[in-house]
Amino acid sequence: MDKLLAMLRDEERKIAGRLTGLRAAIRALSGNGSKPHTVRGNKLRGRKLSEAHRAAIKAGIARAKKAQAKT
Fold first, then answer.
1. CA distance 6 to 46
2. Is 12 in contact with 6 (CB distance < 8 Å)?
3. What's the domain range around 18?
4. Which of 11, 20, 23, 36 has its CA 20 to 30 A from that of 29?
5. Is residue 58 within 8 Å of residue 51, measured between CB atoms?
6. Cβ(45)–Cβ(39) under 8 Å?
7. What is the helix, strand, coil percentage profile of the chain, to 5?
8. Are 20 and 28 within 8 A, CB to CB?
């Protein structure tokens, strides 16, 4: 029984290593490299929005709520 557990743990380590390699290959081929997801997704993170930009966002939210209320 101990031999079986040792073999299973060894196989688990091998598969985990392959999975890590596959994930690295996917990240490399996706064009985003090693940048974290949050950095890629939001260009304005940490920057203050202009008054016009904030107004445009509020107007868009209001339009979406109005459209949702009609349905």
1. 49
2. no
3. 2-70
4. 11
5. no
6. yes
7. 75, 0, 25
8. no
For the chain, the C-alpha Rg in angstroms (whole number) is 24
Total structural domains within the chain? 1
User: For each of the chain's 71 residues, which pLDDT tens digit applies?
Assistant: 889 999 999 999 999 999 999 988 888 887 755 565 555 556 666 788 899 999 999 999 999 999 988 87
Residue located via tokens 């073999």: 7
The C-alpha atoms of residue 68 and residue 62 are separated, in whole angstroms, by: 10
Supply 20's token pair: 């890590």
Q: What is the dihedral of CA 39, 42, 47, 52, to 10 degrees?
A: 170
